[in-house]
Amino acid sequence: MTAALRFDPIRLPPECEVLRQEVRAFLADEIAAGTFDPHKPQREDSDAPEFSRRVGERGWLGMTWPKQYGGHERSFLERYVVTEEMRVANAPTRRFFVADRQSGPVLLKYAPEHIKMDILPRICRGEVCFSIGMSEPNSGSDLFAAKTKATKTDGGWLINGSKIWTTSAHIADYMIAIFRTSPSTKENRRHGLTQFLVNMKKPGITVNPIAQITGQYEFNEVVFTDHFVPDDHMLGELDGAWKQATSELAYERSGPERFLETYYVLTELVRAVGPKPDTRSAEGIGRLVAQLHTMRRMSVSVAGMLQAGREPVVEASIVKDIGTIWEQQLPHRVRELAAFVDADASNHATLDEQLAFAIKTAPKLTIQGGTTEVLRGIIARGLGLR
Amino acid sequence: MLAGWLLAQAHLASPEGMMTVAPASPKDRITLNADGTLTGRARGVPFAIDAKHIAVVATGIGGVSIALVDAGACRIEAGLNLANDPSNTVTFDKVQPIAIKSAPSGFGQNSLMLMGALARSLQIAGAMETMLDLSVRYSGERVAFEKKISKFQAVQHNLAKLAGETSAALAAASSAADALSNSTSFDDAIFLEAASAKIRCSEAAEKGAAIAHQVFGAIGFTQEHILHRYTLRALAWRDDFGSESYWAVELGKLVASRGADELWPLVASR
Fold first, then answer.
1. Minimal CB count within 10 Å: which of A36, A65, B59, B119?
2. A249 falls in which pLDDT band (50, 70, 90)?
3. What ipTM describes this predicted complex?
């Protein structure tokens, strides 16, 4: 075989089921207390600092990290369960999600000890929000065209330039960003970028809001003017960020958040259709459920392989490729089926509202965190075509 | 294999020689008459014309039975599926079975359909692995416009999509196989696994076969080329033991009857 794709039929262990019930009970309490409304994914209260702290108190942040940094040394599969239950409930996870999924693991790997001891326990307590500084006004998918410069100065680096489409920059305490520390070389155009930890509360940073077509406000332009980053905030190898970026991708690309972002419209459709669907509705729902189930089995499989210490980069890219396309199409398929819903269905208005929001959300799903085109390039490389 | 499994459900021994199973379509019924004979018609029975025996699920007044029948006692019409493999209509006209026993409780014709659907899903997934392998290899050999076609981004992206569909088929089929081999009953969770596998693998077969043929161009459309042995079989297997649209309706009905708030617990049950 030229391409050995692997999707082991992994089952979640029994401790996951116990945890799942705990998360569901916690979320039910939060819903009852009015923290969020699971039927309103378009809510404006998605920055919920108190909710974030309560999730931390339950031990559901930094779940897989070492205890010395405030972590809980649990498995990726347990973290998986927490993530999927939060996503399905439309819980307000924005404040902690990036730090827990991505920034914390980067710090664990590359930050000096005193920074790990300072920041990681605070992530685990749900106290800090992270953003990721990758895209720039003229470099999005082409990450290695980044121009924002870090210039060596006494005791650190001066940052000048700007990042864009930076989710949560307006509420973030920190950013993990890549900046240009040297020009790229002829042999390696990916050379010359370095990863840094940026304290967003220090001077020299302006955050400009950018409104989105959904009516939400999530992303920003971040302008750096002689912003100072101390030497010990450099993460990993000087000029070598490109080596660091790729190995993290499997964690970022295969999680349940990569196919559940518009899931709520499917639940709402099933509610609207009622217990005795017509044939067309039944077929439509059946296909969507089969596709959802398959996506989830693929995603759990990758989580299990990560837990076993493998790096299924191609499989993870495949999960994000077909998962995001699925969640992008989902509201459109549900919209087609919604035409057959009885006029007196009690949740008609909720379904319509959710569909309008999901259809407007859909275009971004195949762009954020690696576009479809970039992912297919990675898959093609994995197949030996590049 | 499926026939042997079916007979074993009722502790019937498998005879020597080739066997097949009936019915092979969820809409067909074989009735157990009061006099112990079988009546009914089963369409699309794989390799019935070559089989010595047929393992049958029959329904009578007393419930569901599993029977072993001499193929020679049935009327078997010639017929071929998309891939030119025998796929026959078998008519049971008061056929006396060689052996017959009651099915275990909870076992129905649907159980055979789910197991057959799973078997076909696994076969589709296997065929797709080969389609992907053949297509990737050929794209590295074939030169057009002075380049290997594997170097064209459009071809790369098509092959990445084929890899995605192959992955979906593999994941769905192996998950369902694992679920069934660790379960003693055909409950809702097993239904979700097996029906989803057949739906998703059939969808993958359609998309995947189209891409594989596109990569090969005209040569893959010839009788002498190996490609159609995989593409046409994968497409043909979609129809056996319930097509994807049949199972989608059944799965949709199940989901609707359980209610909206029970959908996620069902999907996340394992």
1. B59
2. low
3. 0.97
Collapsed DSSP state (helix, strand, coil) of residue A59: coil
Whether the CB-CB separation of A230 and A115 falls below 8 Å is answered with no
Among chain B residues, the shortest Cα distance to A320 is held by B164
Residue pLDDT, tens place only, B85-130: 999 999 999 999 999 999 999 999 999 999 999 999 999 999 999 9
First to last CA, chain B: 27
Is residue A373 a contact partner of residue A379, using CB atoms and an 8 Å limit?
no
Give the CA-trace dihedral at B143, B147, B148, B150, to 10 degrees: -130
The amino acid at residue A159 is: I
Residue of B165, B164, B197, B200 whose CA lies nearest to B178: B197
Give the distance, in angstroms, between the CA of residue A286 and the centroid of all CA atoms in the same chain. Answer: 28
Per-chain mean pLDDT for chain A = 93
- Tens digit of pLDDT for each residue in A317-335? 999 999 999 999 999 999 9
What's the gap in Å between the CA of A365 and the closest CA on chain B? 17
Residue B137 φ then ψ, to 5°: -65, -45
At residue A44, the pLDDT reads 63
pLDDT, tens digit (0-9, with 9 covering 90-100), for A54-107: 999 999 999 999 999 999 999 999 999 999 999 999 999 999 999 999 999 999
Q: Collapsing DSSP states into helix, strand and coil, what is residue B143?
A: strand
Name A201's Cβ contacts closer than 8 Å, sequence gap at least 6. A173
Q: Is the bond leading into B23 cis (omega within 30 degrees of zero)?
A: yes
- In chain B, residues with a C-beta closer than 8 Å to the C-beta of A3 are 132-133, 136, 163
Kindly state the tokens that stand for B9.
């459900």
Q: Are B215 and B208 in contact (CB under 8 A)?
A: no
Q: What is the β-pairing status of strands A130-133 and A174-180? A: parallel
Residues in chain B closer than 8 A to A380 (CB atoms): 156-157, 159-160
CA angle A243, A245, A248 (to 5 degrees): 115
Chain B residues whose CB is inside 8 A of the A8 CB are 174
Nearest of B3, B246, B220, B160 to residue A377 by alpha carbon: B160
Residues of chain B with pLDDT under 50: none
Of residues A242, A238, A200, the one with CA closest to residue A222: A200
For residue A289, give how far its alpha carbon lies from the nearest alpha carbon of chain B (Å).
8
Q: Is B151 part of the contact surface with chain A (CB cutoff 8 Å)?
A: yes
Cβ–Cβ gap B172/A11 under 8 Å: no
Confidence at residue B183, expressed as pLDDT on a 0 to 100 scale: 86
Indicate yes or no: CB of A9 within 8 angstroms of CB of B270: no
Strand partners, A179: A194
- Which residues 174-233 of A have a C-beta within 8 angstroms of B? none
B248 interfacial to chain A (CB closer than 8 Å): yes
Amino acid, single-letter form, for residue A291 = Q
What does R_g of chain B's alpha carbons equal in angstroms?
Answer: 21
pLDDT of residue A252: 73
Place of tokens 């370095």: A194
Residues 6 or more apart whose Cβ sits within 8 Å of residue A44: A216
| CA distance to partner chain B, nearest, from residue A154 (Å) | 46
Q: What is the pLDDT of residues A150-207, one digit of tens each?
A: 999 999 999 999 999 999 999 999 999 999 999 999 888 899 999 999 999 999 999 9
Those residues with Cβ within 8 angstroms of residue A245's Cβ, 6 or more apart along the chain or in another chain: A143, A178, A195
Q: What CA–CA distance (Å, rounded) separates B225 from B223?
A: 6
- What burial letters (b/e) apply to A199-215, b meaning 16+ CB within 10 Å? bbeeeebebeeeeeebe
Burial class (CB in 10 A: 0-12, 13-18, 19+), B13: exposed
What would you report as the CA-atom Rg of chain A, rounded to the nearest whole angstrom?
21
